[in-house]
Fold this protein.
Amino acid sequence: MSINTSSLFVLVIKNMFAVLIGICFLAGVATGAEHKLSDEYDMYVDPAAKQQLGEKTFNEVMIFFHEAEKAIEEKNLETLMGLYSENYTDGEHSKKSAREIWERIFSTFEMTATRHNMKLVNQGADKNMVVFRCSGLLLGVPGQNSKVKQKGPVTIDNWVLQDHVLVKEAGKWKLIGTYGTERKRLWFDKPMHPLFNETKLVLQ
């Protein structure tokens, strides 16, 4: 029996096309339900961190920061606080006070997003502790009933060279503290980071 090579080629192409359509459809279903991060969000991480931590640990930490941003943008307080260690501290602040601050931020702003510029500066010998030095912003769009009358995104807080300390607890990365040099600020009277501290300008 002779084989028509032209017909066989057409059949192969059609099958490949059908498979590709199926893959694209499944990918669309998988990603369509996920939260699309705000255009205001931005995170730069020094590429050296991946080499220093190894791909597995680096990816785990990046997922942590991605989940934190997703929770912030969705104003999902429970998910966000689940990323904090029970032993979290930041100066005078604890996990309890951080929760209260986030409640006020979420009730004041319709949209929130962060921008980060980070560099790995330390890690534990077993890679269960990492320290990223970060500078960035927390942005927000005030709600209609907010005392902040400015239209469009406003800077809720900014931070410079603050160290985010993450530890692995029961197989999951948690934020255990943020530390940095105290500096004078226009709106604050003590060292702060937007994820963990009170913003007096916009939350009074």
Notes: Confidence is low (pLDDT under 50) at residues 8-33, 183-204. The longest strand covers residues 154-169. The radius of gyration is 22 Å. The first helix runs from residue 5 to 32.
